[in-house]
Design brief:
single chain; 289 residues; mainly beta; eight-stranded mixed barrel; 3 helices; 20 strands; 13% helix; globular
């Protein structure tokens, strides 16, 4: 009799768990984890207006690796914004950063999955509020908080030129990569703050795999990628490209340098300067969202 009661209790618990999961599914399985409207300019002289967002699974916290988006609606300060068909990208990422107070470089211990949806538009980016609505492939509206974001206007960002890229891989397999800073970044005379990002893009043949994504302070003119991170990258792909991004602190304006192949990096030993900090230690870090 006791065994029968235990079996009934287990069945009830399993049924409750199933009902909760079904309820979550009916309410929509996904949320918009991050989104922005952005003005993106490039070293080539091109520029685009772009909606970009990331989607997260509400049930298990993962980042979907397939396109789960059916519809996108963007309402701007002047009304609905006509969007081009969206593009989806799933990729792998390994984050890094420099702590300037200690001179330590921090890197994730492994790659993790991420995703990205983009939809470009030709309408001018007007200052004001933008509201985003996204539906999944079941027609359910995704959770989105905040659904409305303010775009503060187009900012002219400083530019780092890819022709200034130089560096080398040392005998231990560590990559040292340096570039020239614009004067206003080097002297901290910009009227606003910027956040540079360094990208080691990874390809397997022509297929894009992901990136090593490094956050550095705006006065730093070089990056150090340790041999263990380079080895992890080489386990993912066989072709690597370097690119720099500069963004405003709201991440609504971005500048991108041209990409260069790692094999084409000018082989020069980086020079120690006040704007270049090479490591005194390398630690591991957790994933940064």
């Amino acid at each position: 009799m006791q065994k029968t009661q235990s079996s009934i209790l287990i069945a009830i618990v399993l049924l409750m768990i199933f009902s909760i999961n079904v309820g979550l599914a009916c309410a929509g399985d996904y949320s918009v984890d991050w989104w922005r409207v952005q003005k993106r300019t490039y070293e080539s002289g091109n520029s685009i207006n772009r909606l970009a967002f990331v989607v997260k699974n509400l049930i298990d916290g993962s980042y979907p690796q397939t396109d789960v988006v059916q519809g996108i609606s963007l309402l701007g300060p002047n009304g609905p914004v006509p969007l081009n068909p969206h593009t989806f990208m799933a990729y792998e990422i390994l984050n890094g950063s420099l702590e300037t107070s200690s001179g330590e470089w921090y890197y994730d211990s492994e790659f993790s999955n991420d995703n990205y949806w983009i939809a470009d538009f030709s309408e001018d980016l007007a200052e004001g509020n933008y509201t985003l609505t996204v539906t999944d492939t079941d027609g359910e509206a995704m959770e989105n908080n905040p659904a409305t974001r303010y775009f503060g206007g187009v900012v002219e960002l400083p530019q780092i030129i890819s022709k200034s890229f130089r560096g080398f891989e040392d005998a231990g397999g560590n990559l040292l990569w340096q570039w020239d800073l614009p004067t206003d970044m080097a002297t901290r005379s910009l009227p606003y703050d910027v956040d540079p990002r360094c990208m080691l893009d990874i390809f397997n043949g022509d297929d894009y795999i992901g990136m090593v994504w490094i956050n550095v302070p705006s006065i730093v003119s070089g990056v150090y990628i340790p041999s263990n991170v380079m080895e992890l990258a080489r386990q993912k792909g066989d072709n690597f490209k370097l690119q720099l991004q500069i963004r405003d602190t709201d991440n609504t304006n971005r500048y991108y340098s041209n990409e260069i192949n790692l094999s084409e990096l000018k082989k020069e030993r980086p020079v120690e300067t006040k704007t270049l900090i090479f490591p005194i230690a390398v630690n591991s870090m957790r994933r940064q969202n």
